[in-house]
Design a protein that fits this description.
Blueprint lengths: L1 H9 L20 E2 L7 E7 L2 E7 L5 E4 L4 E9 L2 E10 L2 E14 L3 E6 L2 E8 L1
Parallel strand pairs: 1-7
Antiparallel strand pairs: 2-3, 2-9, 3-4, 5-6, 6-7, 7-8, 8-9
Length: 125
Amino acid sequence: MCITLMIVAMASCGGGKATQSASQLDSGKVVTDSFATIDGTWLKNAGDTVRGFVLRADKTAEEVNMPNVEMRRWNLVGDSLKIEATMSVGDSAVRRELGFRVESLRNDTLTLIAGDSFTYYVRKH
């Protein structure tokens, strides 16, 4: 259950070139804007707070308001977003590669799929 919760928390979370544009995604599967890039800060409402992640052009990643998760690096190949992270569970730390499918990338919105879960993010400017 802890792993599932962490994956859902991470679904707040990319590769290829440093600033991969929407035209570099598999456009047959992903709804995109031609000028959108996946790097940036992506947030979602989570109760009384916001959670999400930062995907930097240098391929480093950082979590936003996810206390048991430490994101390190990201990569985007086709429509597959992978994020390298360490998750704390009790006294243990587990290193994982989190995988998502990019369903939609617009200038201000990002929709990721992990398993049967869709997560909708808004870009912070």
